[in-house]
Amino acid sequence: MADLTTLPRLLLRNARDLGGHAAIREKDRGIWQTWTWRQYCAEVRDFALGLAALGFRRGERLSVIGDNRPRLYWAQVAAQALGGVSVPVYQDSIAKELAYVWNHAEVAIIVAEDQEQVDKVLALKDQLSALRLVVYDDPRGMLHYRYDWLKSFQEVQELGRQFADAHPGAFEAEVEMGRPEDVVMICYTSGTTGNPKGAVLSHRNAVAIAETFMRAEDVRTDDEYLAYLPMAWAGDAVYTLFLGLAAGFTVNCPESPETVQRDLRELGPTTLLAPPRIWENMLTSVQVKAADASWLKRRVFEYFRGAAERAEILRADGTPVPPGLRVACALGEFFVYGPVRDQLGLRRTRWALTGGAPLGPDTYRFFRAFGVNLKQVYGATETTGLVSIQPDAEANPTTVGRPCAGIEVKIAEKGEVLIKSPGIFKGYYKNDEATREVIDRDGWYCTGDAGFMDPRGHLVIIDRAKDVGALAEGTPFAPQFIENKLKYSPYIREAVAFGNARPFVAAMIAIDLNTVGSWAERREIPYTSYMDLSQKAEVRELLREEILKCNQTLPDATKIRRFLLLTKDLDADDAEITRTRKVRRLYVAEKYAPVIDAFYSGTEKVELTTTITYEDGRQATLESHVQIEDVEAGAAVRV
């Protein structure tokens, strides 16, 4: 293992030791295509030497844009084999965001999935001074695109094969030149407070964190993993590239984002990583199907669900499960839990992780109760995605697990979580000042998260430190905790809670169009659009009931007193949330300032002006008068 210090060296190891083992699959036109590790290495070698033939140099940046595709992963490893740096970007980013990242990183080569992504580059080409080559994967629709700077993936690989004939051993020589301290990737952060920052990660970071993870979790060479998360998210890089190369398991790319659930069921992965939004969507789908079932099936589902959740709470508390409840759970496994896991594609899953943001305890307990070994993992882009993980026997919705071996955690005086680890990034690209703000003189990374260590040695994250506050009378207020409680409802897609330095808690809610739309159709309530549906009196009453259910689980001081249903979903294109669906609170507070004022002045209606941003940067404005509701009917709030 001494010489396995870079990702390309791990690839050569896998080609040698696991040559015939499946390395990566892609579902195309309904059929799974498989490449072994030997073939994976050959694809990377041909593309890397093609880049070399086209003048790609050590230290240059190559970006990929598109859905999860084998060639986009190969392109990143190929660039890294030549001493280059990969810069993945979000495939749904608007033009302004793409131009910023590509210019800031001085990207020389872009590998795009298809015609749609090439068109984005084409529209920005004149603004990208460092860009000299664009490579496309899918040739459909590209026949009439004639540019000197545009080539197909196959063309570059053919150049690579010719280069190999003239320079035998060139690929291996380039890999041998790689050093652990070389930059492997620049991951741009979510940008919750402004433009995203480029976190610089080294091969040392990548390999060390992969090895740390394998010591903490049961990772096997024959594992099947589904790669469906955005490649620009550090979590995908850690699990698909870093861990995949280190462990040698099989990565599977779904046919499209729309078929992920179907492909998940078909594949039945043995391991899974999903952010809270995915688990919330899965839970919503189960709840909707249960609500649409016959009376008898609903009763059976609710009975066994209740039994499973009671048993899970007892197990989490270390209390023995009574014999009668064990029998009920055994029957539930046959009638409900197993079939539900099968429908979700989780029957074979040995462990599943949630990370990127806190998962609501109710959602967490649901999956644990139904037999999914769901656990919390905590990390950040700047820590190469890993700090702590929950052991199987100590899973709990209130913590994010024990710090992994070799990773130090301490709590600063004001409650901020500080990290020291071999995964700590090299710094922010072209931003030394921001780097100094988050890494202190002793090498501790300041996460910006508020938390503490519990008596068992588990790390507990309360919220972002800057977001934790208190109500006017002093009760602590953590908005994310309340928002996660609200999102347990299948009818709520997003929520933003307010209350810091205020007399009570209020919330803006974005409905889930699919579930609320289905609810309305079953009751023959007509509607024409999201805006129309969200402002129906019947929908407001539905959401009032959901908030009342949420309030039953909250202390009196933090119960939600007033709410408003937004006329549109929160959208990353409109800068309201990040690409990983984290609320940009400062921006939202400014944008919806009239709503916040109305909440606390007792106003019953507010004029709402919202701006919608299209992918090409064009904007449109929606104006409406929106009703503000008191959660307790008739209990109008005056301040």
What Rg do the Cα atoms give? Answer: 25 Å
Instruction: Give the spatial strand order of the biggest sheet.
Output: 4-3-5-6-7
Q: Total number of β-strand segments?
A: 28
- Named CATH topology of the largest domain: Rossmann fold
CATH level-4 homologous superfamily of the largest domain? ANL, N-terminal domain
Main CATH class of the largest domain: Alpha Beta
Distance linking N and C termini: 66 Å
Structural class: alpha/beta
Percent helix: 25-40%
The stretches of 5 or more residues where confidence is low (pLDDT under 50) are 634-639
Name the overall outline.
globular
Mean pLDDT: 93
Second-tier CATH architecture of the largest domain: 3-Layer(aba) Sandwich
What would you note in describing this structure?
- Helix content is 39%, strand content 22%.
- The chain has 3 domains: 7-268, Rossmann fold, CATH 3.40.50.12780; 270-372, no CATH class; 469-630, ANL, C-terminal domain (GMP Synthetase, Chain A, domain 3), CATH 3.30.300.
- The protein contains 21 helices and 28 strands.
- Mean pLDDT is 93; it is low at 634-639.
- The radius of gyration is 25 Å and the shape is globular.
- The chain has 639 residues and is an alpha/beta fold.
- Strand 3 (61-65), helix 3 and strand 4 (85-88) form a beta-alpha-beta unit.
